[in-house]
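Example S7 (C-alpha cells).
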C-alpha cells in the first residue's frame, strides 16, 4: 500500500491517472474499493464505475457516461444521446471539480477515451484510478503510474485459508498438511483460496482428501477448475440459480431476482444463502455480484458440449447468439431462458419460438415480424417483450405458471378471448399499448397484484371481473383518454391501495361502493369528467392522498358556477344538482389533498375542512373562491398551502401553527392576511405573494398588513435563528428600505 499511496499523493493539486493491473481474481477490484471508501471523503465528488468491460459489451459506453455524471453531479435522470456528446458533457461539467473516479475492469482503449479522456477533463487535485487485466491498455492511454497487484505470499494465503475454512483457527490434525497443499495449489490467488476454503469448511478429513484428489486429476485447469469444484457441490436447483445469476442477474437487485427465481420453483432463499456460503456470489447494496472468473465459469458450463451451437444452450444472453438462433430457426427444447437487450429494430420469423418448448424466462425488445405468432412456451414464468409486435397472445398460449407479463408499448389489441387460467400471475403491464380497446376477462387471474394500463389511449372499458381481484394492490389507468366506464363492483378489491384514473377525460362516474375498498391509500381522479364523488368515500379511513386536480367536469347549462358543490358538497339550495355528501368527516388519514384547477367558487370548500386532522398539504390553486373557511386553522399538521392563481381570493384567515409554506403567487385580489404574526413555530418558513398587487397598493396606510407583518417578523425573530423567506411584489421591498 505504501507504493500505491506514493502514486496517489492525494494532497497534491495535480491531476493523476493511476493504474491497478493484474490477473483476474487477484484482488484489483477489492483494492480499488478499499481506496474508494478511504479517499472519497477527501474529494468534492466521487464515482465508482464497476464492470466497465461487461457493461460496455452488453449496453455500450453511454450508460457508463450517464452513471459517471449522475454520481459526480448528484443529478438523476441524466440522458446522453451518443458517446461523442457524452465526452463533451463530461469534459465541460467536470473540468472544475476535484473528483475521485474509479474505473473497474477496463479492457479497451476506447473505454478510457470515452470516460476519462485527458487530464484537463478534471479539476485540480483529481485522481483517476483504473483497474485492468491488460497493462497495455493503461500504457496506451498514457498511464505511467501502475500498481501491479501481486498474489498473496504463503503466510498471507494460509491465514486467509484458515479464516475461511475454520474462522481463523489453525487445524490440528491431518488438515494441516492438506491446508498447505490447498494454498500451494491456489498460487496466491485470493478468490481461489476463498472459494476452496468455503467449500472445505466443516467437512471431514476424508472429504478434504476426496476434494483435493479432484484437484490432482485436473492440474492444468487451474483457476476455473478450482471454482468448478464449488459449483459441482451444489444441488440441481442451486446450480440453476448460479447459472441464471452468471448469465443474467449479476449486478441486479436482489429482491427482484429472487422473485424471478422463485417463479421458476428454485426456492431462492436457501439457494442464494448456499451460494453466499460457498463464496460463489456476494451481495453489495442489495445487488447480486460475482467475480468475473466465476461468471466466466458459468458461461463455459452453459456452452460446454455445444460450444458452437447456441441453439442447444440452456441460456442465451448475448445479442449475436440470440439473433443467430432466432434468424436461423436454431432454437431447441434445451433453451430455458433468453434475456437480452436488442440494440435496434430487428426482424424475426414468428415461428422462431415454436421449437423452444421449455422456455421459462423471456425478456426481449425491438423485435418485429410480418407474420402471426402461433406459439410461445407454456412453461414461461416471466414474459417481458417491450414493443410486442403482434395483435394478441397465441391462442395456444396457456402458461399456467406465468408470474409476470410485461408487454408495454405493444401493438396488442386484445390479450386473449374468454377465460385463461393464470393463477400464478401477479404482475401485468400493458402500459402505452395504444391499440388495446378492452381488457381481458380477469376471472382466471385471481392472484393479480399489480395491473398497469397507463397510456392505453384507445381503451374503452375495463372488464367487470377486475372488481373481483381480491389481491390487487395497484390499478393504474392514467391517461386512458377514451375510457368511458369503470367497473361498478369494486367492493371485493379488499387489497387495493393505489387507484389512478388521472387523465381519463371521458370518465364521468366512480363506483358507488368505492368506500368499501377499505385499504385504499391513494386515489387520483384528476383530469376526468367526474362531477360527483360517491358518498361512500368517507369510509376510506386509510386514504392518504386524494387528487381531483383539473376536475372541472362538464357543468350543466344552469348552475354551472356551482360545479364543486355538485362534486363534493350538499348544497343548501334544493334546486342544486350536487351530490349529497357527508363532507370530509371520516377521512382521518388524509395527508395530501389536491383540489387545484377545479373551478371552485365561494362556499365550495367544506366548512368542516378542519376535521382533516392528518392533513399536511393542500393545493387549492387556480380556483375562484373569495375566502377560505376559518376552520382551516384547525389543521394542526398542515405544512403546505398552495393558492397560486386564485385571482378572486381577497383574504386569508389565521393559519395553523405548523405552516412552512404558503404559495399565493398571482392572487391579484388579495388584500388582507389576518393574524399572520402567529403564523408558524417552524424554524424555516417560506411565503410567496409575488404579484399580489393589492397587498402593497396602500403604501402609506398604517393598516397595511403586509408591512406590519414584516416588521413583526423582523422584531421578533431576528433574535433567533429562524430562516424566513418572503417573496412579495417588489414595491413592498421598496417600502421597507
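Recovered sequence:
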Amino acid at each position: 500500500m505504501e507504493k500505491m499511496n506514493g502514486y496517489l499523493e492525494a494532497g497534491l493539486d495535480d491531476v493523476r491517472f493511476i493504474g491497478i493491473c493484474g490477473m483476474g481474481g487477484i484482488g484489483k477490484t477489492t483494492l480499488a474499493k478499499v481506496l474508494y471508501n478511504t479517499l472519497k471523503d477527501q474529494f468534492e465528488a466521487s464515482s465508482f464505475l464497476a464492470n466497465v468491460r461487461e457493461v460496455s459489451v452488453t449496453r455500450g459506453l453511454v450508460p457508463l457516461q450517464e452513471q459517471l455524471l449522475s454520481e459526480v453531479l448528484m443529478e438523476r435522470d441524466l440522458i446522453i444521446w451518443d458517446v461523442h456528446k457524452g465526452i463533451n458533457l463530461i469534459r465541460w461539467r467536470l473540468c472544475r471539480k476535484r473528483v475521485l473516479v474509479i474505473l473497474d475492469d477496463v479492457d479497451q482503449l476506447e473505454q478510457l477515451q470515452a470516460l476519462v479522456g485527458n487530464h484537463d477533463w478534471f479539476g485540480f487535485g483529481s485522481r483517476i484510478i483504473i483497474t485492468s487485466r491488460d497493462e497495455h491498455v493503461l500504457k496506451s492511454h498514457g498511464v505511467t503510474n501502475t500498481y501491479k497487484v501481486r498474489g498473496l505470499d504463503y503466510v498471507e494465503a494460509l491465514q486467509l485459508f484458515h479464516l475461511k475454512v475454520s474462522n481463523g483457527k489453525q487445524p490440528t490434525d491431518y488438515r494441516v498438511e492438506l491446508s498447505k497443499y490447498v494454498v500451494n495449489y491456489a498460487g496466491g490467488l485470493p478468490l481461489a483460496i476463498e472459494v476452496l476454503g468455503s467449500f472445505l469448511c466443516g467437512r471431514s478429513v476424508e472429504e478434504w482428501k476426496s476434494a483435493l484428489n479432484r484437484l490432482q486429476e485436473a492440474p492444468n485447469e487451474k483457476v476455473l477448475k478450482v471454482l468448478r469444484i464449488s459449483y459441482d457441490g451444489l444441488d440441481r436447483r442451486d446450480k440453476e440459480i448460479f447459472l441464471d445469476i452468471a448469465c443474467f442477474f449479476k449486478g441486479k437487485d436482489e429482491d427482484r431476482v429472487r422473485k424471478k427465481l422463485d417463479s421458476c420453483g428454485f426456492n431462492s432463499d436457501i439457494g442464494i444463502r448456499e451460494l453466499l456460503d460457498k463464496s460463489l456470489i456476494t451481495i453489495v447494496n442489495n445487488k447480486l455480484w460475482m467475480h468475473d472468473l466465476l461468471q466466466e465459469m458459468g458461461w463455459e458450463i452453459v456452452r460446454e458440449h455445444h460450444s458452437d451451437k447456441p441453439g442447444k444452450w440452456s441460456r442465451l444472453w448475448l445479442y449475436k447468439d440470440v439473433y443467430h438462433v432466432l434468424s436461423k430457426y436454431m432454437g431447441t427444447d434445451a433453451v430455458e431462458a433468453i434475456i437480452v437487450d436488442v440494440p435496434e429494430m430487428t426482424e424475426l420469423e414468428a415461428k422462431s419460438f415454436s421449437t423452444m418448448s421449455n422456455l421459462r424466462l423471456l425478456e426481449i425488445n425491438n423485435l418485429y415480424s410480418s407474420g402471426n405468432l402461433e406459439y410461445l412456451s407454456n412453461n414461461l414464468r416471466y414474459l417481458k417483450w417491450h414493443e410486442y409486435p403482434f395483435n394478441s397472445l397465441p391462442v395456444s398460449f396457456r402458461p399456467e405458471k406465468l408470474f409476470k407479463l410485461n408487454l408495454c408499448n405493444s401493438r396488442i389489441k386484445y390479450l386473449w378471448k374468454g377465460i385463461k387460467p393464470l393463477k400464478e400471475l401477479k404482475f401485468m403491464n400493458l402500459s402505452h399499448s395504444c391499440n388495446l380497446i378492452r381488457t381481458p376477462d380477469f376471472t382466471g387471474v385471481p392472484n393479480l397484484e399489480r395491473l398497469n394500463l397507463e397510456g392505453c389511449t384507445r381503451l374503452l372499458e375495463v372488464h367487470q371481473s377486475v372488481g373481483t381481484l381480491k389481491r390487487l394492490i395497484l390499478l393504474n389507468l392514467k391517461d386512458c383518454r377514451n375510457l368511458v366506464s369503470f367497473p361498478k363492483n369494486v367492493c371485493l378489491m379488499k387489497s387495493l391501495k393505489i387507484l389512478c384514473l388521472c387523465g381519463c377525460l371521458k370518465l364521468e362516474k366512480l363506483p358507488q361502493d368505492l368506500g368499501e375498498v377499505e385499504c385504499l391509500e391513494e386515489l387520483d381522479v384528476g383530469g376526468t369528467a367526474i362531477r360527483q364523488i360517491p358518498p361512500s368515500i368517507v369510509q376510506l379511513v386509510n386514504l392518504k392522498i386524494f387528487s381531483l386536480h383539473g376536475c372541472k367536469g362538464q357543468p350543466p347549462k344552469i348552475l354551472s358556477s356551482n360545479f364543486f358543490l355538485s362534486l363534493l358538497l350538499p348544497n343548501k339550495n334544493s334546486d342544486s344538482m350536487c351530490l349529497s355528501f357527508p363532507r370530509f368527516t371520516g377521512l382521518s388519514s388524509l395527508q395530501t389533498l389536491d383540489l387545484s384547477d377545479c373551478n371552485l367558487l365561494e362556499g365550495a370548500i367544506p366548512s368542516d375542512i378542519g376535521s382533516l386532522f392528518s392533513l399536511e398539504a393542500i393545493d387549492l390553486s387556480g380556483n375562484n373562491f373569495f375566502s377560505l373557511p376559518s376552520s382551516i386553522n384547525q389543521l394542526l399538521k398542515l405544512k403546505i398551502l398552495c393558492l397560486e392563481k386564485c385571482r378572486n381570493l381577497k383574504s386569508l384567515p389565521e393559519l395553523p401553527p405548523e405552516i412552512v409554506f404558503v404559495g399565493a403567487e398571482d392572487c391579484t385580489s388579495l388584500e388582507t392576511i389576518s393574524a399572520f404574526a402567529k403564523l408558524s413555530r417552524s424554524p424555516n418558513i417560506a411565503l410567496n405573494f409575488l404579484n399580489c398587487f393589492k397587498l402593497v397598493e396602500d403604501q402609506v396606510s398604517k393598516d397595511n398588513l403586509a408591512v406590519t407583518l414584516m416588521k413583526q417578523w423582523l422584531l421578533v425573530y431576528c433574535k433567533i435563528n429562524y430562516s424566513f423567506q418572503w417573496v412579495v411584489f417588489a414595491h413592498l421591498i421598496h417600502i421597507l428600505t
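Notes on this example. Residues 556-581, 729-737 have pLDDT under 50 and may be disordered.
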